[in-house]
Specification:
Shape: rod-shaped
Low-confidence stretches: none
Strand content: 25-35%
Largest sheet: 4 strands, mixed
Number of helices: 1
Radius of gyration: 31 Å
Number of domains: 3
Distance between the termini: 92 Å
Length: 186
Amino acid sequence: MALLPFAPAVSKMKVDTEANILALTPSSGKIAYGTDTQFFYIADGTNWRRVSLKFYTDSANPDMGYTQNNSKDGYYATFITDKYFYNVVLQGYVGVPVNGAIRINTLENPDTFEIYMRDTGWFTIIYDLTMYQGKFYHAPFLAGDLIGVYNGISLRLGANGRPVYNEYDVSMGACPPEKDIDGGEW
C-alpha cells in the first residue's frame, strides 16, 4: 500500500518561500521546503500539498502554549508540557518511580492517591480535605463527616446535640458524652 496518493518518485527539491513554491508548476514528484512557513510541500501533478509535519528548534525551556493553535504542539517523545487535560483517568504507576511520579494505589482500601518523593518511596497525598465556612475540615471517606482538622470535632451532632467526633474520638452510642479532660496524677 502506498503511503502517498500520488507518485512517490522525487525529481527535484526546492527551498524557497511559500509564495514562490505555490507559483511553481506542481509537477508530480516535486518536493519543496518553505523557509518562511517551515512546512514541506509535495506536488501531486495538479496541486501543491502542504505536509502537516513541521520542524521546531528545541530549547532548554520550551514554551508550547496551552492551545492547539500555538506555534508548538507541546508533545515530545518523553514529555507533554503546557496542556490542559480533560476527562483524564489516573491509574497505577508501573514504571521505575522517579521524583514527582503520581499514582492511584488500588492495593489500599480505600484507594490512595500517592506521590513518589525524595527517591525514598511513595507518600500518600491527603485528598479528603475541604474548606467549609472559612474553616479547614477533614472529610474521611468511610465516616462521611466533616471533622475539623485543628480540633477533631465533627459538624454532625448526636441526639443530645454534642459532636459525634470530639478530638477525633467517637463514642458508640447515639448520645456522645462530654469530653473528659484528664489532668493526670499529682
